[in-house]
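Blinded run. Sample ID left blank on purpose so nobody reads anything into the name before looking at the predicted structure. Input follows.
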Amino acid sequence: MSFDSRKLAMKIARIAAAAVATVLVSLLVLRSVYAISIFNELTSGMKQSGWVESDSVMQGGEELTYEASYLFFKIGKVRMQVLGRTVYDSIPAYHVRAYIDSYSGIPFVNLHAAYDTYQNARTFTCLFTSNIQRDGGDSSYTSCKFDFEKRVIDWKRTENGKVTQQAQVPLDKEYTDGLSFFYYIRAASRVADGVRTSISIPIVVDTVRSKVDLTLNEKKEDCDVTAFDYPLTAYKMSGHIFFTGFFGVTGNFTGWISADSAEVPLRANVSVIIGSVVVKLMDARRAGWIPPKWND
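Blinded prediction complete.
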């Protein structure tokens, strides 16, 4: 192989590695699409109209599994669970969890992670979140506690059993993490009830505070997902991420949510440094859910 050919092969390998890793971020964007809070006109209206615990969305035992792909390659999946209602720091809360796994045989990446979040049951904002990640033989644990009395976010990371980083970030408003956003956006869609609505969303990712602008219910259209062999009726949304995440996740994204009271996220297209990653619903376990079939 010539020197130029080797350089080209190495470049392709690096791009492939980035593509594999970006899927894990795009899965976060699905578990994710990246974050939301309650400081805008929509959520103020929600509070005034009596936003309460949303069992129509937060069904205990619900499990949704998504698969991510880059070009023609299936790279990884994320499994979302509603573990149930509980109490955290004397606040009614929901406990939710996500498992993220890269597929075996994918070169350069062997990542497995579990995320846990306790979110306020009335506002859907984050109270505490943590994650455990394993990449080959290495492991890390990250925790993020939202201390509203001290008005700080206590953040800490441990790698292979040793504390490597910790910080306190000013808590100037209520935030959600990526995982709680996944459920907040569903509740927001339920309250919006099909009406086109634009919101600006504060987000905290590790120690970075930023925002996402998002428009819900742009239009109703059909949406194909892996979980069903027929198109579903969905509301399209779009948004813009104002920070750069891992492997270049930033900028514009689109998503689709089922047009019914379950408000199940069906699909997301996420911009990354090397193109676009697609995340689709591949399995849904939700008691009594009959997905809305598209009738053209």
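Unblinding after everyone has recorded impressions. The CA atoms of residues 227 and 283 lie 5 Å apart.
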